[in-house]
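Example for reference:
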Amino acid sequence: MIEIITKYFPELSKNQVGQFKKLQSLYEDWNQKINVISRKDIDNLYEHHVLHSLAIAKAIRFKAGTTILDFGCGGGFPGIPLAIMFPECHFRMIDGTGKKIKVVNAVAEACGLKNVDAQHLRGEDEKGKYDFIVSRAVMPLPDMMKIVRKNISNKHQNALPNGVFCLKGGDLTEELKPYANVVEEIPLDTFFDEDWFKEEKKLIYLPL
């Protein structure tokens, strides 16, 4: 169902469409060996994983040269779809589970992504500085911020200030309370009209 991607991102190049098309067979193949996506969800790869990740690309168009850290990247989301979308940006992808990083590296290589650097690493041990941190429901935001705040650069180059983009679901009132004055909570059905995105799915943006 690559059409769900081109529907919302008609400006994609032929090469990018080709890279997105490869993801279904790559993840199906890897899922046989390592369970990176729930078995029942692999048929919804493009809607529930790829397009979900690309909600970030609806909120911000990263400038060429932007550096992004995918914290707790799992099998490659949101980093891999974003790396395809923004080939001029650099994506550092880390996860504490080595076999998931093996999948990320294999998928990046198969898609010809030169802008991905994936490492088996805990967030506490990541020393680099990045313009933005991205993640998909890794842990509560206050816990995550304790770990990644050190990794956010204070040199801004994008339309939005450097900070964190998290894809999350459910009622986030308590979780976001410490950041009530600055955080943005964007329902994903702002961007996408499929029913799945109406189920309390949100993009959280927390500027530095």
